[in-house]
Design goal:
Elements: E1 2-6, H1 18-29, E2 35-42, E3 51-52, E4 55-61, E5 64-66, E6 69-71, H2 73-84, E7 88-93, H3 96-104, E8 111-115, H4 123-139, E9 142-145, H5 148-153, H6 155-159, E10 164-166, H7 181-191, E11 196-199, H8 208-218, E12 222-225, H9 231-240, E13 246-250, H10 254-263, E14 266-269, H11 280-287, E15 292-295, H12 301-304, E16 311-314, H13 319-331, H14 333-350, H15 353-372
Parallel strand pairs: 1-2, 1-7, 2-4, 7-8, 8-9, 9-10, 11-12, 11-14, 12-13, 14-15, 15-16
Antiparallel strand pairs: 3-4, 5-6
């Protein structure tokens, strides 16, 4: 069986969020004789390598960018070529240009669409895009949401409830190597242990100003690992608030990330907008048996982190409430252990890649079978 995935970015140019989800789906189903092809966009249309984790990579050349949306004339040709030999087309939403490419294709191949998040845009752009979006969603065979929480809060998904199902994202613990002792030693010397950890891209919807203000209130040790557009802004805020208890590590290696998760007391995830649709970083924290603090934004973050069970969930953009949650976990070692254990159990029961892969495999076979009827 050959699956064609289509999304704007993928390894090696960008490997986060949706890209990591595509990789997890591909790796979790590869042992079932499935061949995964991923078409994405880059500046020159040339692959640095044609294989990644056993997947076949294809690149279309970026033509231009409008309102943060990639467009590519080359993608129409490449998509049509690859769709012709695919058994299933797997789209990853949102990406407005993808809608145009797929709607222009006439292959008639069975198509599923993983709905990673609502398409959030400025009102005037939404007016233009909505008809195209609904045309695409009406034509695909099945829609997959990544959490029941997102289905319950998305007006778009409610409209297509009859062909929408939930398959939570998952990760494979076998894909994470145990860090070397020297890495643990180096990080202990740099940041210590028993700190509150954030790992992720430094983007506007991550709510990191809330985390820093909560750190100011509690004076508890906080480590922020990641790079992005807000890096300079966070350094400025740390200096202005004189946050000696906050360490900004910048971009880190995967081995360092796992070591930090091992050393931390709890994982903090203050994302404040629906752009944070699931939070694979939370899944990694659950995999490592760490209690979590996140915000209620009506998305999958509250599916991964269950309030009062695997951690605490507080209102977004509220440093006082976030600080209170940090204090509760800091001051109660029994609660830390209980929530960490429950988080690990939640991961093992519902958030492993093997479960996600089995459900996608069933779905792939189902849409192929129905198309033949």
């Amino acid at each position: 069986m050959r699956i064609l995935h289509f999304f704007k970015s993928y390894w090696p140019e960008v490997f986060a969020g949706v890209g990591r989800s595509i990789d997890a789906i591909a790796c979790a189903t590869a042992d079932n004789g499935i061949e995964h092809h991923i078409l994405s966009i880059n500046d020159d249309g040339i692959c640095e390598t044609d294989r990644f984790h056993g997947q076949y990579l294809h690149k279309a050349q970026r033509s231009f960018l409008i309102y943060s949306t990639d467009f590519s004339y080359d993608a129409f040709r490449q998509f049509n070529r690859l769709a012709a030999s695919a058994d299933v087309i797997h789209l990853h939403f949102p990406w407005p240009f993808m809608d145009l490419v797929h709607l222009a294709n006439r292959s008639g191949k069975p198509t599923i669409l993983t709905y990673h998040a609502d398409a959030l845009a400025k009102p005037f752009l939404e007016t233009i895009y909505k008809p195209v979006m609904h045309l695409l969603l009406s034509k695909v065979d099945r829609i997959v949401a990544t959490s029941p929480n997102y289905v319950a809060t998305s007006a778009v998904l409610k409209r297509y409830s009859k062909k929408t199902e939930v398959i939570p994202l998952g990760l494979d613990p076998a894909g994470y190597e145990t860090p070397r002792p020297a890495v643990f030693d180096r990080l202990r010397q740099t940041v210590g242990s028993d700190f509150f950890l954030f790992v992720g891209a430094l983007r506007h919807y991550k709510g990191l100003d809330t985390l820093l203000r909560a750190a100011e209130i509690t004076q508890l040790p906080v480590v922020v690992a990641g790079a992005g557009r807000l890096q300079h802004e966070l350094h400025t805020m740390k200096t202005q608030l004189e946050l000696d208890n906050v360490t900004l590590l910048g971009d880190i290696a995967e081995e360092d990330k796992i070591a930090l998760l091992g050393l931390c007391k709890a994982f903090v995830f203050p994302s404040n907008k629906r752009s944070e649709a699931f939070g694979l970083s939370l899944v990694e924290a659950a995999m490592m048996g760490k209690p979590m603090i996140s915000c209620e934004i009506g998305t999958g973050t509250s599916f991964v982190n269950r309030n009062g069970e695997t951690g605490l969930v507080v209102p977004p953009d509220d440093p006082v409430k976030f600080a209170e949650a940090m204090k509760i976990i800091d001051q109660d070692s029994d609660l830390q252990k209980k929530m960490g254990t429950t988080a690990k159990e939640h991961f093992e029961r519902e958030l492993q890649a093997k479960y996600m892969g089995a459900r996608y495999l069933t779905l792939y076979n189902e849409v192929i079978r129905k198309k033949k009827l």
